Amino acid sequence: MHFTHTWIKAGLVALMLGWFSQPSMAELVVVVSAKSPLAALNEHQVADIFLGRTSDFPSGGEAVPIDQAEDSASRAEFYLKTTGKSPAQLKAYWSKLIFTGSGQPPREVASTAEVKKALNAVLNSIGYIDKSELDSSVKVVLLLH
User: Fold this and answer.
1) Splitting the chain (145 residues) into consecutive groups of 10 residues, what average pLDDT does each group show?
2) Which of these, 42, 87, 114, 118, is most buried using a 10 Å CB contact count?
3) What pLDDT was estimated at residue 1?
4) Which of 70, 58, 65 is nearest to 106 (CA)?
């Protein structure tokens, strides 16, 4: 019996050490072009735009969401923080909307550089990037915690 408890304790310690030593998630920001008049959004507004529930910014004007690649860690983290959906749940969500003709997912780009390029090509675009990738071409409208 003592032998089993020792192994369980050792397993729990190893599990906890692994959990605490995981690298922290990136700090993501929701961004628009630096030229955009948009000042700020909340998480609910961002979720509505990226889930196709609305196609307009709260202040008016069409909102064009730009997504990162489907296998991107930033994308998984972004949707989990803004919508509470995992990648699998998100895929199921969009599959249903596409099948019923109710919506199309945001345009997808391959990198942070492409997000910035898209935001500056179409003034009413909105995307998300790692905070460390910020530069003068984009403006933060929401910091994700």
Assistant:
1) 49 43 70 96 97 94 96 95 96 96 95 96 96 97 95
2) 118
3) 52
4) 65
- Name the token pair of 24: 């922290």
pLDDT score of 94: 96
Q: How far apart are CA 42 and CA 141, in angstroms?
A: 8
Strands 107-108 and 138-143: unpaired
Q: Compute the C-alpha angle 91/112/31, nearest 5°.
A: 85
Cα atoms found within 13 Å of the Cα of residue 13, Cβ hemisphere only: 6
Are the C-beta atoms of 43 and 143 separated by less than 8 Å? no
Q: Phi, psi at residue 68, to the nearest 5°?
A: -85, 170
For the beta sheet containing 138-143, the strands, ordered from the edge strand earlier in sequence to the opposite edge, are 107-108, 64-67, 125-130, 28-33, 138-143
The confidence score (pLDDT) of residue 11 equals 46
The whole model's pTM is what? Answer: 0.82
Cα dihedral sign, 94-95-101-102: negative
* Domains of the chain and any CATH numbers: 29-143 (3.40.190.10)
* Amino acid (one-letter) located at 114: E
